[in-house]
Amino acid sequence: MNYQVDTRGYYGDFGGAFIPEILYPNIEELKAKYLDIMQSPDFLAEFDSLLKDYVGRPTPLYFAKRMSEKYQTKVYLKREDLNHTGAHKINNTIGQILLAKRLGKQKIIAETGAGQHGVATATVCALMDIECIVYMGKIDMARQRPNVERMRLLGAKVVPATSGSQTLKDATNEAMRHWINHPTDTHYIIGSVVGPHPYPDMVARFQSVISEEMKAQLLEKTGSENPDYVIACVGGGSNAMGAFYHYLDRPEVRLIAVEAAGKGVDTGESAATTQLGKPGVLHGSKTILMQTSDGQVVEPYSISAGLDYPGIGPAHAHLFASGRAEFMSVTDRDAMEAGRLLCRTEGIIPAIESSHALAVFEQRKFAPDDVVVLNLSGRGDKDLQTYIDYEFE
Ligand SMILES: *Cc1c(COP(=O)(O)O)cnc(C)c1O
């Protein structure tokens, strides 16, 4: 079984590039050039140096002693929460801005839901002195005021998407519309392993630094590059793909992807895509998505903005369909409890997205000798108000 993208841009039955005719030249240009650019020595030197000195990589692989005692297994946390801007998203935006420069693009557009990807994009545009426009649903702008202010402080223009439900999918539509109208001078930075080929592969490669570091760090700490399990939360799936990437072809390493069940898989307020979804086309690729019987995208729900997405990237759809990864889902309530537990056992306040992955330890038992690596995708500063307002039991 092959888990990498094939020459047609597919992962098994999923992937491809379902795009309007007018964007065909952009996607073709990306497809023709992305690998050569990403593998060129001058790109690699600049990427590595920025990851080290600007982002703060390598991020630690931390043996969580008290968590390990509590759950009677060996828990390691990959500390993506310690990256500049607070999550793994900057690995991808650094990579894409360097690529955009080499493609000769003068302008960057991005879409954002909660604002995390928008902030990571505005950050690298400031760093590279490139004009940045971020599309964001009008309702999301009101809900995520601090991130709107961060983006503006960083010099980005934040444009409200006022159509439809005024949330992420409408912001995506607006960004697409902009790209269609300015196809030659603009690069569109997509924030997860979603979108038309080659985006899912490109983003996966930028995020694969996570598992590349894990291999070396595990070898040093445990004597083996391989853990028994890797656990990560999945919105679109970029932090999970980064954490899985170098283990995809090592079946002895088991992969666990964690989706947001929201208020419960059967409540109508959920984002557990693999449990509720069916194959279809979303944001330019064939994947699994939540949809009505006549193919309308269903509005997802999760307490965590980063997991509140109606699909998953096509590579994850393939990992699910082939059984290579096990997909689990975690409710708002279980995630919030697991997040608070990490605060109190390890002194780390996790992003609520990452808390979903942490809740797996309550749902399933691991053996005392198992080495379990959990990708802690981000820190919880942005979620402070949600933790404060939440009514814990
Ligand atoms: C955006 C985000 C996610 C979800 O995105 P993926 O592409 O699935 O990784 C998860 N965790 C944090 C902290 C995020 O900011």
TrEMBL record:
Domain Tryptophan synthase beta chain-like PALP intervals: 56-378
Listed pathway(s): Amino-acid biosynthesis; L-tryptophan biosynthesis; L-tryptophan from chorismate: step 5/5
Sequence positions bearing N6-(pyridoxal phosphate)lysine: K89
Cofactor: pyridoxal 5'-phosphate
EC numbers: 4.2.1.20
One GO cellular component term noted in the UniProt record for this chain: cytoplasm
Class of the enzyme per the UniProt entry, highest EC level: lyase
Quaternary structure, from the entry: Tetramer of two alpha and two beta chains.
Function, as annotated: The beta subunit is responsible for the synthesis of L-tryptophan from indole and L-serine.
Protein name as it appears in the record: Tryptophan synthase beta chain
Species for this entry: Microscilla marina ATCC 23134
